[in-house]
Design brief:
Helices cover 79% and strands 0% of the residues. By secondary structure, the protein is mainly α. Helix 1 packs across helix 5 and helix 2 packs across helix 3. It is elongated and about 90 Å long.
Length: 178
């Protein structure tokens, strides 16, 4: 018995996974917006026994919340999807580095699950058909096709006019009737 994957099912699965991952990251950032100072202080406290200087921890902690919010929104709606996924991977590298420094292996394992989801989404970005990216690409393609048609029409019109002018000069068809 063979299992056949249909493209429309893969597109649907990809879309739902992308939205779920995007909402997850968006809400990670959104719920911390009102208390970024508290989040940064907790990160500094968590990382105090590592060799990282406090100012680096503060800078990275300040970046996490807005980055999660922005990439989460972009991934959820499918806008700049590939770039947002790559940015999210970079965020996860930073987070994985910090969490393994403090040897919090259960959180590191949880983060690996996020990374597997990001891998699936990035590797399958060709199935990102239900997205703002796809809508914009289709709109641009239609516009380019219309522009190409307009250019073709202009070229044909120029050719016909030039042909007509050249022929009229050589054989003035109306000269006999003057």
């Amino acid at each position: 018995m063979s299992v056949e994957l249909r493209k429309k099912d893969i597109v649907a699965a990809y879309t739902f996974l992308r939205i779920v991952v995007g909402v997850n990251y968006f809400n990670h950032g959104f719920v911390r917006l009102g208390n970024m100072g508290g989040f940064i202080d907790r990160m500094v406290e968590t990382m105090k026994d590592t060799y990282l200087p406090e100012f680096l921890v503060r800078i990275n902690a300040a970046i996490v919340t807005p980055l999660e919010l922005i990439v989460g929104l972009l991934i959820a709606i499918g806008l700049f999807t590939r770039s947002a996924l790559i940015a999210c991977f970079c965020l996860m590298i930073m987070l994985m580095y910090g969490i393994t420094l403090i040897q919090n292996w259960s959180t590191a394992t949880d983060q690996l699950v996020y990374n597997i989801c990001l891998f699936i989404l990035l590797a399958g970005v060709g199935y990102n058909s239900v997205s703002v990216d796809s809508w914009l690409r289709n709109k641009r393609t239609k516009r380019n096709n219309l522009d190409s048609g307009d250019r073709l029409e202009e070229t044909v019109t120029k050719f016909v006019k030039n042909f007509w002018i050249k022929n009229n000069r050589r054989h003035n068809l109306f000269s006999r009737f003057k």
